[in-house]
Amino acid sequence: METKSVFTWQKKSRVKRKSGFVFLLPSFFGVLMFMLFPFGDTVRRSLMAGTEDGGYGLSVYRDILSNQAFRLASVNTIRFMAVSLPLLLLISFLFALLVYHFTRKQSFFKTVLMLPAAIPAASIVLLWRMMFCEDGIVNQLFCLNTDWIFGPESFFVLVFAYVWKNAGYQMLLWLAALYGISDELYESARVDGAGSLQRLFYITVPQVGQAFGMILFLAVVNSFKAFREAYIVSGAYPNERIYLLQHLFNHWYLNLDIQKMSAAAVLLAVIISVPIFLLCRNKADGV
Amino acid sequence: MFRNKRILALMAGILSVTLLGGCSLSASGTKGGKDLSAETENSVPKGAANPPKGRYMEEEILFPEEIRNMTQCGRVQREDGTIAFYFESSEGIAVYSYDGKEFKKQDTPAPGPEGIKMTQVFIGQDGVTYYGGFDKEYIFHLWSLDAAGQAQELFSEVFKAKEGMDYGQIPDYIQILENGDLLLSLYSGAGVYSQDGKQRFAIAQDYMWGGYRSSAFLADNNYLTVSNEKIVRYDITTGQPSGEFEIPEKNTTDYSEMTLFSDGEGGIYASCRSGLYHTTENGTIWEQIIDGTLNYMSRPDFYAYQFYKMQDGSFTGLYQSGSSEQLMLFKYTFDETVAAVPPEILTVYALKENPTVRQAAAVMQKNNPQVRVELRIALGEDEKVTEDVVRALNTELLNKKGADVLILDGLPAKSYQRKGILADLGPALQSVRGEILPGVLDDYESNGQIYYLPARITMPVVSGSEEAKDALLSFDKMSTYEGTPPLLSPSLYEDVLRNAARLNYSQLFNEDGSITDENLRRYLTSVKAAGDRGSVKVSFTEEDIERLDIVNRGVTGRWNADYAKNKCASGTENLRSVEDSMFALVTAKQKNTEIESANETYIPAAMIGINASSQNQKLAEMFVNILFEKDVQDASLSDGFPVRSTSLDSWVDTEKSYIVSYSENNSDFEIEAEWPVKKDRELIINLVKNLETPAVVDETIMQIIIDGSKDYLSDKETVEGAIQTIGNKIGLYMAEKE
């Protein structure tokens, strides 16, 4: 009798597992069709040695790694991410903390902070031009003669634009993580005599750390969209400090340099995947 | 519960399969068995069992040999449907009637008033034949013949020159109403005049220059004309509008070239380059009777004069050829045996409209009724080439789709060649290769293969004193030129930079299109030195424009005008035809100088290539071949000189009665030029034949130079600073291509 009961449970469990896979099918096929197959095709194209009738090889990878434009764009993109991502994560986290703690008019602050994300890129560009052009508001206000758009300082304008536009969105993600922290934890910490800073560093930060990976991932993805503003403001060939990988990809596509573009995309995917993989592994290990 | 889950799981599975099915593309690039790249609105599926049949076919009707070279001075359709053509002959007026089948010589009418050259014939609503023409003073005269054959002049008061004018009213459409009143259309409006010569009322219609208004007709009490870009019907008894119609294919129709005629039942026929259309008396939609893109109606060198409906149901179109100025007759007969829509489609992609390509399309379709040439024009005339457009094309090409034939003007032709996008044009050019200018052919041939070739070329020319011409063609001399007037007239630095780069292409750019720092320094410093002396600026204020008399910036002829006005010591132009050279030749003669080409450089245009992935290779090759054949190359379409040497010879032999004039508002300056004499035409064509260096300035590099030099040219930066900025960006651009 007992044996039968175990058997029935195991059978049900297998059926459940199988039906779970069937439910996964639509999204699996979606990922397969729209992500994995195109990526596979990109890898294939990256291995093509030039023209369509040529053979396969790694020559394109060698070419792009020695390509001056690719090196410059890679360094610039990494520099941009290294400066803007920590800044964005920190500022948006501070905003989230402020909004979380100021319960009055919370939705008003949320809306105000989200506004930049809702403004179309073309409108933002007009705003930047008004602010940062030679006779713009910034130069006049601080009596400067800086070329914020085409000069080397354009890097800081781009970082500022990226942080300004994405801080609201990132704040919402942090807020979601903050709302997920149990009030009982704070209450018991208070009972134990923990102050605000202690609660922040010993409860809030470790707790929201669970969501950090996803928030960082979305910030990285959004950082590639900064190209749009850079392109509209400074054109196809901006100051070389804000010449990003997307500029290069764009020009390669216009020139139909698909092999180079594919190889660069594969390299980029590998470079981005490594920290994400490490992050996921660390999380799985409970670090 | 368990059953429900099973059903849900089954539905999820079906959804997945459906999703995949919807996205599936067969290996041949078809969706659901249908070829997307060839799919068009009107296309007929290949192999369809019973494709619809029947369409109007075009046939040229030659005028009888004896009148072919005579000047036509009038034509009129009679009540029996025949068309009477009036020609000037040595024995007076010769009349031939055409009934849709043959020409018949008619009796010669009695001569009109003495000293008047006949230009018009029409039958009034009273059934009487009226004649019109101009005297030596360019005064129009209208007359009819009485029973004894004597000319009776009519409405002379209406046509006489008004006080202070040295010419009278010039009618572009004229009719006599049933009550004897006169309907007179002029270039700026129309009116009805009573028999005592007084205007009864005026009728509003759109301005139209040219002496002949084909887009107007009178039927019963209705006068139909174009007003406010609509076809408006006026009641001729009151002068009030009684109906209006949209112009067919309004977005593409140039209504000054449209012809209107009555269907005899209150409806309207309208013909334009896209075809012949019909609407009923109070209709709101136009039915396309003839597709003009399938025949010569769309030929850019043909201008429709008039269309007629014949009694047998066919149509007759009278055209003038822009090249020869001869009138030609085409008959359109419904043929039930041919497919309504040509079953084979050849697609041609171009960024911008190109008359030479359109000409080739018309010729190909005319000679191959089973083929439809579909022109895909990506941008309007005033639109700029954007990266989005090139990106969209690249996506198609990358997927081995896209048009069969590519017009590569503004596209990265060299890159397409390297990536294997283009097929060898060798087989297509086999029969015409020997005719193409060697100076042009050699530039595009490598290892016996040609992947793209211009069908037209334009020629930058310079004029002025020897010293001034040398200064334009050498940066060192440009920077030291100190003559009076200055080398350059007030204009924008952007125009000067572009012009100087074009004129000195070979000494400025390296073979790969890049530029050395040293060349860049010479280029910028020379342009600035000459520009400073000629008040050239990066931008002008409204006050500057008025003070320095800056007009028509960037318009062809602008520099010549300044040179002719002695505002500068040199004139440059980018000549595209003999017509284009008329001002340059006249100015050079006035200044006792000669025009010469800029270091034998030319600018390629209508650059053609075949998509290597095209499924219609044979048709594509045929199209390319037609592009370099006589029918296309001989035509002067103002988009460049032909690259076929015999066509250039035919341009030398072309005689025209053509006069152009140029004047400016608020200025007494005026220049008039007649069709060049043979010696001058030879001079221009010989310059074209000796061109050998293609000057294709990379637009990205040019834009980098223009943007990067603004501060230096407006004295805000040193030349070294500009060179560094420009050099870095060009270096980056070139590195991308490595």
Description:
The complex is a heterodimer of chains A (287) and B (738). Chain A is mostly helical and 287 residues long. Chain A has helices at residues 2-46, 59-65, 68-101, 106-118, 121-132, 137-141, 154-179, 183-191, 196-223, 226-234, 245-254, 258-284. In chain A, helix 11 (245-254) packs antiparallel against helix 12. Chain A is flat, with a radius of gyration of 25 Å. In chain B, the strands form ten sheets. In chain B, strands 27, 28, 29, 30, 33, 34, 35, 36, 37 and 40 form a ten-stranded mixed β-sheet that branches. A four-stranded antiparallel β-sheet of chain B has the order 3-26-25-24, with no helix packed on it. In chain B, helix 12 packs across helix 21. The longest helix of chain B has 22 residues, at 2-23. Chain B starts with a helix and ends with a helix. Mean pLDDT of chain B is 87; it is low at 19-47 and 553-558. The interface between A and B is large, with 33 and 38 residues.
